[in-house]
Amino acid sequence: MPGAVVNADNGDVACDHYHRYRDDVALMKELGLQTYRFSTSWSRVRPDGGAVNAAGIDFYERLVDELLAADIVPWLTLHHWDMPQALEDQGGWTNRDIVDRFVDYALSVHDALGDRVQHWTTMNEPWCSSFLSYTAGVHAPGRTSIRDGLLASHHLLLSHGRAVQALRERAPELDLGITLNLTVADAADVADPLDVDAARRIDGQFNRWFLDPLFRGAYPADIVRDIRKVDAAAVSAWQEAVRPEDLEAISSPLDALGINYYHGELLSGHPQPGPDGEPVETNPHETPGQQRRTASPFPSDEGIHWVERGLPRTGMGWEVQPEGLTRLLVRIGEEYAPEVPLYVTENGVAYDDVVGDDGEVPDAERTAFLRDHVAATLDAVEQGADVRGYFYWSLLDNYEWAWGYAKRFGIVRVDYDTQQRTIKQSGHEYARIIADRAI
């Protein structure tokens, strides 16, 4: 879709992990990684939503075998945003039929890998594949519809629940979970009702919209009311789609909850003046490099403003806020999942790396980010959060969806012209932390 990806980049080759996975697993072994979190591609495993593609599933069999031979635990995610185009043409996540198709896909992957993979994640960041994709239009399929975002969010969660039920029935011994991207939404002034309400609405639309049905069997009523004020027809269509038995499936017991954290946000109900006195916005959920029309991913966004607080910013323009991760993990453990092990399944940072004359990649900012966020995770453990693991995003520089190749998150640099891998300073530090078991 023209203008959808920065620089019109595509994922045809990317970091070529498909052909280079053996060398990449050897690199993981060199770094001391204990677990590799990867996703299977629905479009590769069941092209067009049809029969299983043997060549596609065979790749994951080879990858898993290579990981196990290197004593690295495979951690499988079934859905990291991609979908066969034929299914999107039938409505994608807005079409309830997608639920059965997803369960079929999940069981196909289990047919091939169930004897070797213990850890299964259904969805990665359903907020992104619903509101960011169907309401904001930032990610594929690029729709800008409140109704479609609501329907997509429900069908994603229902697909998760039904897949958990199907996998649990087939193999009770599996560890089953879901991964959510979550934020810490703070009010700029806790004494200002407008600021407090702005923080409530972002927390509700980003965090609670997914946490509440998963752990409490209900969507947050206050957010339903907020969105109804904006688009009553969209809420009515969504309510018609939510059947009584759906929430029972969505709230199926979990063995793990993955939490992806990149930054928090400070929010106000008042416009924020810039240096020249004119209002300025610093919404961290925008993709400025896109050249096509997008919208807010938050259906109820009127009167919500992001506040600049002087924290360091990453190459994505996101604030660096390690203590937010501590508070987030403690809150989720206390309020939602007191008996469910937590995992930081993504945490990372993009900077504009420069290769030195000696061929090395000094990335002091990423190295500090890594240390500070691992420390923040340990702080949460000390405060009682049951956190069992930490995954950095990402091992390799990679194709970052709407950002294309403009942003580098890896602790290993990829030269996209030659596919040469170079461990960055942050990668060497990560290996040291793993080896020493200490910051």
From TrEMBL:
EC annotation from Swiss-Prot or TrEMBL: 3.2.1.21
Keyword Hydrolase: yes
Region (Disordered), start-end ranges: 265-303
Enzyme class: hydrolase
Coiled-coil ranges per UniProt: none
InterPro entries per record: GH, Glyco_hydro_1, Glyco_hydro_1_AS
Active site residues of this protein: E346
Superkingdom as given in the UniProt entry: Bacteria
Keywords in alphabetical order: Glycosidase, Hydrolase
Protein name: beta-glucosidase
Organism of origin: Microbacterium suwonense
Annotated gene: bglB
